[in-house]
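Lecture 7 notes: from sequence to structure.
We start with the chain below.
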Amino acid sequence: MIFYIFSSTTQLLAYIGPGMSGGVIAAIFGILAAFFLGLLGIIYYPIKRAFKNKRKKKISSKNKIKKRK
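Predicted structure tokens for the same chain:
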């Protein structure tokens, strides 16, 4: 059916104004931004938490050494 629609030789007489195309571009940009920001959040926050936990362990181990002396 899609092939039939695009292979039609009749004139369609439809007008899509610049506002419509701007809206489509904005929607596509929004979908792509949401996808990549979601992916970044899934990847970034566990790494951030791992570095934070590593830093806490390093600080707590230094405090333990100071308490022993």
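Points to note: Residues 2-68 form one domain. The helical segments are 2-6, 18-68.
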